Amino acid sequence: MSGLGLDNEAEAVYQVALRRPRWRVAELARQLERPEVIVGAVVDRLRSDGLLVASADENGAVRAVDPCLALPALAASRVWA
Q1: Cβ within 8 Å of residue 51, ≥6 positions away
Q2: Under a CB-based contact definition with an 8 Å cutoff, are residues 32 and 13 in contact?
Q3: Quick one: which of 3, 46, 65, 72 has the most CB atoms within 10 Å?
Q4: Contact 5, 75 (CB under 8 A)
Q5: Which three-class secondary structure state does DSSP give residue 49?
């Protein structure tokens, strides 16, 4: 478990996703030098946690939710789970 309360893979994907307004899974996988199938599963988890959302600008892409908004919501959901 890391500083954000995410596993290492999820934290790495989220931190990279924060660098640009939108990403496709294949782009994230290349950036992280990880298999696309693994990154896709992590993206799905991050979307479930509210840390990533679908991009309104590009179909099939995701964007990171600002940590100021996403992390308090994630912490609250983990406390109440």
Answers
A1: 6, 10, 14, 17, 64, 65, 70, 74
A2: yes
A3: 46
A4: yes
A5: coil
